[in-house]
UniProtKB/TrEMBL annotation:
InterPro entries membership: TM7S3/TM198-like_dom
Organism (species): Miniimonas arenae
Record key words, sorted: Membrane, Transmembrane, Transmembrane helix
Signal peptide: none
Keyword Membrane set for record: yes
Transmembrane segments: 6-23, 28-47, 53-74, 81-102, 108-127, 134-160, 172-195
UniProt name for this protein: DUF4203 domain-containing protein
TM7S3/TM198-like domain segment(s): 9-192
Domain of life, per lineage: Bacteria
Membrane association type: Multi-pass membrane protein
Amino acid sequence: MSEIWVVGILSVLVGLFMCFRGYVALRVVIAVVGAFAGFLLGAAIVAEVTPDGFLGTTLAWIGAIVGALLLGGLAYAFYQVAVVLGMASIGFAIGSGLSAALGVRPDWLVWVIGAVAAALLVVVSLATDLPAFLLVWLTAFGGANTAVTGVMLLVGVVTLDDVTSGALPDDLGWWWAVGALVLGVVGVVVQWRALTASRQAMREAWAGRTPAGRR
């Protein structure tokens, strides 16, 4: 099997997985990487303050586990923090920019309006679960693009050099873009429905009202 077939098939498989399960996959990957880093950091800290070496005692293992739980949890939630901070900066830029363009004076009032706009956009992002939606949207369309690129490799529309250089031919048919768009939309719908169902099941479990118990 030639390398173009290997790359093409892998691109299709990985792209489809990210398109339809990207939210769950990325959250897990982020948490695992963070937990691993925390495990090493916790063990290293204990090793520095004790003479027993790396993971040489029960205390070292406790430190490693605590570090894994701490950094894993932070990594799991980090994307939400990043999105919220991003929304705040966008809100401030919009509020202060429009105020300055409209000639609002004095300058401190422009800053106040920008801060209010930032706070409002943060509230909206939290109330509408915008961080989760953005991750679903990015993974769905990113995965769709990867899968379609893999198909183009398999049928010979593009080459590996085209893909690795990022310079795709200008004469690609419009249907490839439409296919990626449609696949991305389907991926968003599938992921969002799965996410909603998962959260509903968790709420019912916490409330002691599982679907089986209501029959």
